[in-house]
Specification:
The structure holds two protein chains of two kinds.
Chain A: H1 2-17, H2 19-52, H3 63-88, H4 90-98, H5 101-105, H6 111-143, H7 148-173, H8 179-194, H9 206-214, H10 220-225, H11 230-256
Helix pairs in contact in A: 1-6, 2-3, 2-6, 3-6, 3-7, 3-8, 6-7, 6-11, 7-8, 7-11
Chain B: E1 2-11, E2 14-24, E3 29-33, H1 40-47, E4 55-60, E5 63-64, H2 69-74, E6 76-79, H3 91-101, H4 109-119, H5 135-147, E7 153-157, H6 165-178, E8 183-188, H7 191-197, E9 200-205, E10 208-213, H8 215-222, E11 225-233, H9 236-245, E12 249-258, E13 261-269, H10 275-284, E14 288-294, H11 299-307, H12 313-317, H13 323-337
Helix pairs in contact in B: 3-4, 4-5, 6-13
The chains are: A mainly alpha, B alpha/beta.
Chain lengths: ~260, ~350
């Protein structure tokens, strides 16, 4: 555990010594802000209109349903597909390029300690991003009365979604010495996984159903609604496990060659 | 301390190292000598556990590097060909990180970092970012990294590559200072380095060991005759004939001629010192003897002899170093003057 933390600390240090952490955080905070503003403004004008029309019988509009859900499910998810590769692309590619991989692999560390350390470092940076999002959402409590409980599910969903992407991105980073290639590869694969459920709209054959199950976006539905479904949790955790397992295999293969 | 037995390493169909066996005893400095691409780096990478061997057994401090990799790695300090440093870290941060992953106890990290940076003379740049340091400093930070956990075994891959002559001298002194407390294996393709730092040499060429032993021992074993250089003022043809008739002399060849002076290379039977008889012969003929000296086979010659196939035995024996080796000589001489 001590070794895992040492490696994780090193990764975090790299993120914050380089512009990467600041770039990712700034982009994220700015986009969150814009999206949050637009959704809130739309919500307010909609609510006013309903009030003027005197819709007394209609149920009150839900803040969770009109602001939080579209923010997480619709938009930020897509942003993550492009932002998280920036976080993971350097994890192994940079060590391979600079030769420091030789230091790590000849130290008394197991491969798994190195992998978990790297994953943990990336996860901590990502948790900061999630925290930023929820800082915005916290504003809602001052001016409205959103339901707090679904937010827990929302946060958990966002974390799990990101964790799966990070683990897979780390795997892609073991393929090459070139960070850009690792990053672009991650983006493409993430995007494909994201749209894997689209064929569902016009077909319902078995392979299409499998594809739809694999889709990253499908499993965020429940979380975005505020529901924690065990199946979805298992889905994202398997994504994390798969990413870590494949990274381990890839590092093994790395050693067999030069 | 290090036992390598029957090490073979293949990269796919290419054979990088073939059936290499050697041993490094506790506290000695073992030189790994060979031309570029001979398999030095591969061998070192297998010893450090970075690459798995295709065949063979490697034990470091009694631990098999394949079966008990963590125990073996704990006892090895390794400096790869290019120092494995993180350019965005400061020297202190970097050394502290390496100390942690090498298993130095938390309370000892500070003192170990201090000691290693003093030993490798990087204390004055301790708070600078490694990426902003010169090549020489970076190399020394790499060396400090290898020493940080006070390992029993040090594996140094071309530790002086890319340094200036002054730094080369300092690094060699540092390495010699490490002998005794640590077992050191260093690789190089620079010959003077071996005779200056190593007690024992393993010469490797095309993935195979071609010779091993102390530098002097190798010289002695490989040279089949004694060579004397003699400079004489007199009629060259007659002198040559006369020298030939001296007992034990097998071959006489003119090497240099200026005015009436000629330098001859005389080869005599192994173990026979013909200098006194040569001198007497010259003086009896009333020629002037200007210079007389023995000429041993240098490490360069041995190296060439062992590692080059297309160089004929003859040219090696005649002491004709290639332009490359002359360059190395010059480099060594330069570093000597500092």
């Amino acid at each position: 555990m001590r070794n895992v933390i040492a490696v994780a600390g090193k990764e975090l240090r790299h993120y914050f010594h380089s512009p990467i952490a600041y770039l990712v955080m700034t982009v994220w905070a700015a986009l969150c802000g814009v999206i949050f503003y637009i959704l809130t403004a739309a919500f307010v004008s909609q609510a006013l209109r309903m009030q003027m029309m005197g819709g007394m019988g209609a149920p009150p509009m839900s803040i969770n349903e009109f602001i939080v859900r579209p923010m997480l499910q619709g938009i930020l998810m897509v942003v993550l597909l492009f932002l998280l590769p920036l976080v993971t692309m350097r994890l192994y590619a940079e060590e391979k390029r600079s030769g420091t991989i030789e230091l790590l692999l000849t130290s008394p560390l197991t491969d798994m300690q190195i992998i978990l350390g790297k994953f943990l470092g990336a996860l901590v940076l990502y948790s900061v991003l999630v925290a930023i999002t929820f800082l915005y959402l916290a504003v809602l409590f001052f001016y409205g009365n959103p339901n707090a409980r679904p937010l827990i599910a929302n946060a958990l969903g966002l974390l799990l979604f990101g964790a799966a992407l990070l683990a897979l991105g780390m795997w892609f980073s073991t393929f090459t010495k070139n960070q850009i290639i690792a990053g672009v590869l991650s983006m493409v694969i993430f995007l494909l996984l994201f749209i894997a459920d689209w064929p569902q709209n016009f077909s319902s054959s078995a392979p299409v159903k499998v594809l739809a199950y694999m889709s990253l976006s499908n499993h965020l539905d429940n979380f975005a609604k505020g529901v924690i479904d065990l199946g979805d949790v298992v889905y994202y955790l398997s994504g994390v496990a798969l990413g870590i397992f494949l990274t381990a295999r890839s590092v093994d293969a790395l050693k067999g060659r030069a | 301390m290090i036992e390598v037995a029957g090490l073979t390493k293949r990269y796919g169909p290419t054979l990088a190292v073939s059936d290499v066996s050697f041993e490094a005893r506790k506290g000695e400095v073992l030189g790994f000598l060979g031309p570029n691409g001979a398999g030095k780096t591969t061998t070192m990478r297998v010893i450090t556990g970075y690459l798995p061997p295709s065949e063979g057994k490697i034990r470091v401090a009694g631990y098999d590097v394949v079966d008990e990799p963590l125990e073996a790695k704990r006892r090895i300090g390794y400096l790869p060909e290019s120092p494995p440093v993180y350019p965005d870290m400061t020297v202190i941060e970097y050394l502290a990180f390496v100390a942690r992953i090498k298993g130095v106890a938390r309370k000892d990290i500070k003192t170990r970092v201090q000691e290693a940076s003093e030993k490798c003379a990087v204390t004055d740049v301790a708070r600078r970012q490694i990426g902003k340091l010169s090549k020489g400093y970076r190399q020394r930070v790499g060396l400090a990294q290898a020493l940080i956990h006070n390992p029993e075994v040090l594996i140094l891959d071309e530790p002086t590559a890319g340094l200036d002559p002054k730094q080369i001298i300092e690094t060699r002194e540092l390495i010699r200072g490490l002998a005794g407390q640590h077992t050191v294996v260093l690789s190089t393709h620079i010959l003077p380095e071996v005779s200056k730092t190593c007690e024992r040499v393993v010469v490797i060429s095309q993935g195979k060991i071609v010779a091993q032993g102390a530098p002097d021992e190798l010289t002695h074993r490989l040279q089949g005759f004694e060579t004397v250089l003699i400079t004489i003022e007199g009629p060259a043809a007659e002198v040559m004939e006369k020298l030939h008739r001296v007992g034990g002399v097998q071959m006489v060849e003119p090497r240099d001629a200026a005015d009436s002076r000629t330098t001859f290379e005389v080869q005599a039977e192994k173990g026979r010192d013909v200098r006194a008889e040569l001198a007497r012969a010259v003086v009896e003929s009333r020629w002037n003897l200007l210079e007389l000296k023995t000429s041993g086979m240098s490490l360069e010659d041995i190296f060439l002899k062992l590692t080059t196939k297309d160089v004929s035995e003859d040219s090696v024996a005649r002491n004709q170093p290639s332009a490359l080796l002359e360059g190395l000589h010059a480099e060594a001489d330069r570093s000597e003057q500092h």
